[in-house]
């Protein structure tokens, strides 16, 4: 009895049933998958550069479905013929072994399903991701040469300020406009505080043909101008020239660091600079005001020294000063973080300091992270024409605990495709990871650091270029990604603004021109 069962299982008929069941299942599976691939909705987010790419391998899958079908038909035809023609008792045993053949066919189908689907995924490429649709969006109506100068959250609204001085607040619940305001005639926005405070935003204005000599405070609840401060000797058009925190507006002036009352504009205190010195960048939070001061060499204007100083926000008293490792003028300097203190320095000297510098709370130098290397270039600060985009701005660098997370590119590529994490305490590289798309930048949210990538997909069935954004949370310790979400019509190259406001994620594009086909502001459900 036992030997008869073994012979039955190993017989050609059983193997034919096994083969027939497997190929029949594969044929049916590949017919469905080929149809699904070849009729894929081109309106979904896909593209050759994205992991969420358009499906491929459709015709190969269809051909394999036909071949599997032929093999299945042939296997079952041969099996049926053999069972109708008894040979050496094989056919005669059919009534007693039909359950063996049936079981073999079902087993073959079951065994073939998983590897068949895995093989299909290899043929097809990345699995498509349907992008999240916007809950609402603001129609792109910007003039061609005008983009976003500032974007600030305020309660359940988000405020966008254009470079031409037009400002509007949008309710995050439905996108309706709460208020709008315009700058004086022939006035452009030339500076913006990185973050709002107590419902106030700080802007710099300049008239056509003039310099950035005016600072105004905007009530973000009404859009009204609270006060205006003029200084003909100042120029606030650079990065980190004005800052705002609860109870204090801080300005970089030729005389020193000036503090004003944020609601009235009345002077609070002035920290004067030494003769031949002037602040080049300022930043502030509730606990301290920080500034970089540069002192030119009186005998050689191509040489000079720079220092980082911190001041008490109550009265401007200097707490400490730390010399920076520079000897020539600073082409670019700005604050990546105030608490903890991380500074980006780009010295004029080609062989000078081009690095991120971190400090302890009492001013001791911690780490130097070079931003240029033979194979990697690290972006440190947003460009001057797209800075001041709010407290959740998309920037090239964020600090998360003891990790400095940077976007990186190769020297011959002006778009970053990599993330690199460095230790804030000693500067060594912790991890590096390549991204799916082009990196727009990084932002710090309540849930941790988040990378914003963008995809520009060539025209498909609709005949127009499509834009998508993908966000992914980044583990600062390992660099691993989680909670990836794709958003439709929501991204472009360049820094923008992204953050959670009023129970939604809000994205403000750096440009919202009609020619780009992108809304200026979009809101999405929080997942």
Overall pLDDT level: 79
Global shape: elongated
Assembly level = single chain
Global structural class = alpha+beta
Largest sheet: 5 strands, antiparallel
Q: What percent strand?
A: 35-45%
Considering DSSP H and I runs of 4 or more, what fraction of the residues is helical? 10-25%
Number of H- or I-type helical stretches: 4
Radius of gyration: 32 Å
* Unreliable spans: 4-10, 41-53, 88-96, 384-388
Number of strands: 33
Distance between the termini: 61 Å
Description:
- The protein is of the alpha+beta class and 527 residues long.
- It has a domain at 2-124.
- Helix content is 18%, strand content 40%.
- The chain is built from four helices and 33 strands.
- It has helices spanning 2-10, 12-38, 58-84, 94-124, and strands at 136-138, 148-154, 157-162, 167-171, 177-181, 187-192, 200-207, 214-219, 225-230, 242-245, 248-253, 256-260, 267-272, 277-284, 289-297, 300-311, 318-323, 330-337, 342-347, 354-359, 365-370, 377-378, 397-400, 403-409, 418-423, 429-434, 438-445, 448-457, 466-474, 481-488, 497-501, 504-508, 521-525.
- Helix 2 runs parallel beside helix 4 (94-124).
């Amino acid at each position: 009895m036992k030997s008869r069962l073994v012979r039955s299982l190993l017989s050609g008929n059983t193997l034919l049933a096994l083969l027939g069941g497997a190929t029949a299942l594969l044929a049916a599976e590949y017919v469905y998958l080929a149809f699904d691939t070849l009729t894929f909705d081109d309106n979904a987010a896909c593209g050759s550069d994205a992991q969420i790419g358009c499906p491929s391998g459709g015709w190969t899958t269809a051909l394999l479905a036909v071949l599997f079908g032929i093999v299945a038909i042939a296997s079952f035809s041969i099996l049926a013929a053999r069972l109708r023609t008894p040979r050496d008792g094989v056919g005669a045993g059919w009534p007693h072994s039909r359950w063996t053949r049936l079981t073999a066919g079902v087993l073959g189908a079951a065994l073939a399903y998983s590897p068949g689907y895995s093989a299909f995924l290899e043929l097809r490429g990345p699995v498509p991701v349907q992008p999240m649709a916007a809950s609402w969006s603001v129609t792109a109506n910007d003039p061609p040469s005008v983009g976003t100068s500032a974007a600030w959250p305020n309660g359940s609204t988000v405020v966008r300020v254009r470079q031409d001085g037009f400002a509007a607040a949008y309710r995050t619940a439905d996108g309706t406009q709460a208020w709008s305001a315009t700058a004086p005639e022939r006035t452009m926005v030339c500076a913006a505080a990185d973050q709002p405070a107590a419902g106030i935003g700080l802007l710099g204005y300049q008239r056509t043909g003039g310099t950035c000599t005016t600072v105004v405070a905007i009530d973000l609840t009404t859009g009204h101008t609270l006060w205006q401060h003029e200084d003909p000797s100042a120029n606030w058009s650079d990065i980190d020239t004005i800052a705002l925190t609860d109870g204090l507006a801080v300005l970089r002036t030729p005389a020193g660091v000036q503090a004003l009352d944020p609601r009235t504009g009345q002077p609070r205190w002035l920290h004067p600079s030494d003769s031949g010195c002037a602040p080049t960048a300022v930043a502030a939070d509730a606990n301290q005001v920080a500034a970089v001061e540069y002192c030119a060499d009186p005998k050689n204007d191509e040489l000079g020294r720079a220092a980082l100083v911190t001041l008490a926000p109550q009265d401007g008293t200097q707490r400490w000063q730390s010399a920076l490792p520079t000897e020539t003028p600073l082409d670019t300097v700005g604050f990546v973080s105030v608490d903890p203190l991380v500074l980006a320095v780009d010295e004029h000297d080609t062989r000078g300091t081009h690095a991120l510098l971190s400090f302890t709370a009492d001013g001791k130098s911690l780490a130097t992270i070079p931003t240029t290397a033979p194979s990697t270039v690290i972006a440190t600060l947003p460009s001057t024409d797209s800075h001041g985009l709010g407290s959740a701005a998309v920037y090239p660098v964020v600090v998360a605990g003891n990790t400095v997370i940077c976007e990186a590119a190769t020297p011959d590529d002006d778009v970053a495709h990599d993330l690199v994490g460095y230790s804030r305490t000693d500067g060594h590289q912790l991890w590096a990871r390549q991204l799916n798309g082009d990196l727009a930048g990084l932002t710090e949210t309540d849930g941790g650091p988040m990378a914003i990538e963008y995809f520009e997909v060539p025209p498909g069935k609709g005949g127009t270029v499509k834009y998508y954004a993908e966000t992914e949370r980044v583990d600062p310790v390992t660099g691993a990604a989680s909670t990836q979400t794709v958003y439709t019509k929501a991204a472009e190259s360049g820094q923008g603004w992204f953050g959670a406001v009023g129970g939604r994620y809000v994205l403000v594009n750096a440009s919202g021109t009609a020619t780009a086909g992108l809304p200026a502001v979009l809101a999405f459900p929080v997942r």
